[in-house]
Amino acid sequence: QVQLVESGGGLVQPGASLRLSCAASRSIFIFNAMGWYRQAPGKERELVARIGSSGSTNYGDSVKGRFIISRDNVKNTVYLQMANLKPEDTAVYSCYARQVRSVGPDVEIWGQGTLVTVSS
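Above: the chain sequence. Below: its structure as C-alpha cells.
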C-alpha cells in the first residue's frame, strides 16, 4: 500500500554535494527503520545509512563523516545528504522501509533506485 520514490541522483564532480530524497506515498511513522543501500556494477549491495523511528542512525564505514540521513515525517520523506563525493560513491542508490509486524513476517519495501555518478 506504500510506494517509495527516489529522486535527486545525477552526474557530479568529485568533491561535490548532492541530496537524495525518498518520498513515501503515505505516513512513514509506521516504519521501524528507513534508509539507503547502494550497489555499484559488479559489487554487492551495501548499507549506506539507516534511521530508526527514534531518530537513531547507522552509517556504512565508507560514508561516515560525509553522508547524513534525516527524516521528515510531515513530508513523508527521508533524505540522504551527501558531501565530498568520491568516484567510489558511484552506484544506484535505493531507498527502503522496514516494518516489524506483530503478526506475520516483517515487511520490507524498496524503491526503484536513483543513479549517482561521480566523475570528473
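The two ends are 41 Å apart (CA to CA).
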